[in-house]
Amino acid sequence: MEKASNLDSKMYVLDTNVLLHEPLAYLSFQEHDVVIPMTVLEELDHIKDRKHDVSRDARVAIRGLDEVLKDASPEQMLQGVALPSNKKAKVQSRGRLIIVNDHLFADSISGLPGNENDHRIINCAVHLQKQHSDSKVVLVTKDINMRLKAKGAGLKFVEDYRTDQLIDDIALLTSGYKKIEGDFWQQVGECETEQQGRDTYHHVAKNTISDVFCNEYILDSSDHFAARVKSYDDKQITLKDISVERLMSHTAWGVKPKNVYQGMALDALLDPSIELVILTGPAGCGKTLLALASALEMIIEKGIYDKVIVTRNTPEIAESIGFLPGTEEEKMAPWLAAITDTLEVLHRGDENPISSRNYIMEKANVQFKSVNFMRGRSIQNAVVILDESQNLTASQLKTIITRCGEGTKLICSGNLAQIDSNYLTPVTSGLTYIVERFKDFEGSATVNLNGVVRSRLASFAEENL
């Protein structure tokens, strides 16, 4: 390999989990060189034939690498093959993709014992650091412990893969609403108001509210004013006047909002023009209850949609429950107990809540589906509830969102404080990704349900544990 000329040029060594997280990650490093150790190719080869969802990502990564390297000779692969330009990247200059046979390096370079794959990859990065002393060699891995071991082995630069990370701190995540200090109308100068049927719209100057986006809710300190951003341009913002009283009067399947945040959520959930509703918030804030109640209201009472499809990530579906007898819905039942629990709560006043639950599930055509089997489908005229979506990556969420056809409403709910995935954090979760990516889409709305309403006990636990 030719030596890089200066420290402005970087050489990124990718760990296997980066390619499993985003199979085409090697296209995201702009003008810098990307190194794939032979050990990574071996790991992808072992993973690609397993009956796991991650095997699909391994096969995509292998096909992508083959596409770049298919015409290269062995010598060219070792020297580096020019990477194809990434359409999303602003930099037009391209780096190289280099395959390194790390099995030829002595294990003593990094000082890590044994023959583990992680140690081989770290060993490769340390060797390149010594060989290319005038270049910045960076190991990129999603594995925290591997990053610690790499630093302990003498590697100067170790990073997490953050290309799909849109915010630096979860505190910066969009809540879906803004609170204006004082009385909103006292801060508004000229305002043009128009009536469209039952709805009132106000056109206010753009500088009245800073950094707005479509379907963002606006509240003030008076506890009376509430509005939703309908549209905006460089000169003015169009607000749909809702009022707090109207928000709190929303009802879905007998469920009424307990606070203004739930009122905003119900307003978005019951609006057919909003095709994607993202609900975030702590455990016990009412995400699942509101989603299911509004789905039943729109299907059974209003007849807007035909069915409810409930799905969530099931990391062990292929290993444990897949071998149990029963239909897909029956196999999914243990993971979707939150939905059946919520249905029983909605009918707890009935003489026989379980019979009512079963009747409603049949009448509303409630279907339990696994995320693993959503690929390739086209879902029409349905409400899709994606529960526990904080455990999904951006690519997994893209797979589900692109399944939604005409007349389908998708509700994504999740608690970013309860991530079970080994390689996801609140800022790299797919839920965070779509909140930021869709915040300016006129067909989506985000509401952070601030406040636990499940019980006094749950509220105290959320605040103090």
Word description of this protein:
It is built from 16 helices and 18 strands. The chain has helices at residues 16-21, 38-47, 53-69, 74-79, 117-131, 144-152, 184-187, 244-248, 260-269, 287-301, 328-332, 337-346, 353-363, 394-401, 430-437, 456-464; strands at residues 10-14, 33-37, 81-82, 96-100, 136-140, 157-159, 177-180, 191-196, 199-205, 217-220, 226-232, 236-241, 276-280, 307-312, 366-370, 382-387, 409-414, 444-448. The radius of gyration is 26 Å and the shape is globular. The model is unreliable at 1-6 and 316-321 (pLDDT under 50).
Spatial order of strands in the largest sheet? 3-4-2-1-5-6
Q: List low-confidence stretches.
A: 1-6, 316-321
Gross morphology is globular
Kindly report how far apart the N and C termini lie.
Answer: 53 Å
Helix content: 25-40%
* Helix/strand class: alpha/beta
Strand content: 15-25%
Record field, number of beta strands: 18
Helical element count? 16
Features:
alpha/beta; disordered N terminus; 6-stranded mixed beta sheet; 465 residues
Topology:
Layout lengths: L9 E5 L1 H6 L11 E5 H10 L5 H17 L4 H6 L1 E2 L13 E5 L16 H15 L4 E5 L3 H9 L4 E3 L17 E4 L3 H4 L3 E6 L2 E7 L11 E4 L5 E7 L3 E6 L2 H5 L11 H10 L6 E5 L6 H15 L5 E6 L15 H5 L4 H10 L6 H11 L2 E5 L11 E6 L6 H8 L7 E6 L15 H8 L6 E5 L7 H9 L1
Parallel strand pairs: 1-2, 1-5, 2-4, 5-6, 7-10, 13-17, 13-18, 14-15, 14-16, 16-17
Antiparallel strand pairs: 3-4, 8-9, 9-12, 10-11, 11-12
Helix pairs in contact: 2-3, 9-10, 10-12, 12-13, 14-15
